[in-house]
Amino acid sequence: MHARNFSVVAALVLSAGIGSASADTAPRIDVVASPTVAVHPPGAAIASAHFLATQAGEEVLAQGGNAFDAAVAVAATLGVVEPESSGIGGGGFFLLHDGKTGKDVFVDARETAPQSVDAHKYLGADGKLDHDKALDGPLAAGIPGEPAGLAWVAKHYGKLSLKQDLAPAIRIARDGFPVYPRMVDELTERHDVMQRWPATRAIFQPQGKPLAVGDIFKQPELADTLQTLADKGADGFYHGAVAQQIVAAINVAGGDWRLDDLAGYQVRIRDPLRLKYHGWDIVTAPPPSSGGVALAEMLNILSAWDLPKLAAATRVHLIVEAMRRAYRDRTFFLGDPDFVKDMPLARLTSQAYADGLRKGIALDKATPSSSLPGAPPPKVGNHTTHLSIIDAQGNYVAATLTVNTAYGSGLVAAGTGVLLNNEMDDFALQAGVPNAYGVTGYDANAPKPGKRPLSSMSPTFMIGPDRVAVLGTPGGSRIITMVLLGILGFDEGLTPQQVVSLPRFHHQYLPDEISIEPGALSADVVKQLEAMGHKVTTRSSTWGNMQAVEWNRSENTLSAGSDPRNPVGKAQVVLAGGKQ
Fold this sequence. Notes:
Blueprint: H1 7-13, E1 43-48, H2 51-62, H3 67-81, E2 91-97, E3 104-109, H4 131-135, H5 146-157, H6 162-175, E4 177-178, H7 181-189, H8 191-194, H9 198-204, E5 216-217, H10 220-232, H11 235-238, H12 240-252, H13 259-263, E6 268-270, E7 273-277, E8 280-284, H14 291-302, H15 312-333, H16 345-348, H17 351-358, E9 384-390, E10 396-402, E11 412-413, E12 418-419, E13 460-463, E14 467-472, H18 479-491, H19 496-501, E15 505-506, E16 514-516, H20 523-531, E17 536-538, E18 547-552, E19 557-562, E20 570-575
Parallel strand pairs: 16-17
Antiparallel strand pairs: 1-9, 1-20, 2-3, 2-10, 3-6, 4-5, 7-8, 8-13, 9-10, 11-12, 13-14, 14-18, 15-16, 18-19
């Protein structure tokens, strides 16, 4: 389904209003608390990018697991059924809320650079960045983090064993699942790269033939590796035979990994970034994600306007101007907090800073990006996935997982079935020179041994007086603006399905244009934006794959939404007693 079919929802969010309120006088929109709210949800809600992954979450919940067990099951299964987007050869972020203690935890399972990392290895004979080395094959891969993340979440927050949580993924990897169109489309796109390595060809071209829609895709070696992870925990991946096979595969292909690279990998447990918007407590991703900082800046800028009362074109204009300024700022200072100690997070996320930025926004005129000195923002790969879960104990999980671009590096470690990521391209591999996505790098994101590259992934909670929402999405550099539009949608009372169906528009400072999905804005709104000085570009296709769930505490109801742009996604609510 395309954005042009969402006109009813768009009318709710991009509603026309009377006049254009002043930034200094517009009233705030606050969530009003209900007299009584439920203490626990009536069941569980799951939204993920594939129906088999959502079913895996339901399966472990039915066995007595909680949201954290379900998240492990869903994430691991997504890695099996969406190899183009995520997997145990990649990494991700898990945002957790413990319903019993009220504690929020951010589990950073981002990939890391190997000890041998040397930016000069990514240069060609002409001294310029060789994008093939950065994106394809052994030099492109970072040390995977997802296996450690799955094991950590299960051990510290789950009720079931890791073996129980991984059982659905192992079964589906062994028995297979039907190939769907996006798998084939992106295999076609990456065909030449994935032809280079025998282990990759053996899995993705069985009997020498390309996979076709409807084929049953089986991955017995990946099933064995997942079983070893289930039996031995993280040690089953980062030590022993699996680790030896992965290191050997990288080095035979021309890379330089050591067993210590895997043995030394650790997840990082970080404090989430917190902000307020219209009565909501928003909990989101801290560095090494740039998402939370950018969201804080945009929402702080927008907080002074009564957005629903503005005319549609004015509303889009102001949101775009907030996007422009946040994306301008996000690349200068942010990186892995274990390496970059002087990030000015307090200033960038402060209301006072946003108030100063807002003064430069005219209500009827676009700000040329050329007048805001800066650099192009990172365009993190589009081929990522997300899951959102709430359970009956009031636990929440938002997790975004990735291998970076489609099918990661294209290199499968022989004997393991593990398709390795290409996250090294998210580093600034050559100072001042754009990478394959047009990114100009800086010291804060320069590669160093053990360092994590900057990300846009933005798993997020919204906690209001009587409503809780969990959301996130893939989409590269557009992740942050999609989550922003999702937050604004929930703030205006939309349901999860309406939020994930919203038409999308995006501005990222450079290029200086508003990108819109087909039919996302009316011709009249586009004309008004162009009269303000904006360039509006309609893309040929939609983007993103948002997954969201909500607990309405005043009514004690659950609801869920899976992005209709993705026909194999599924959102499911399971009430107490197993009713759906």
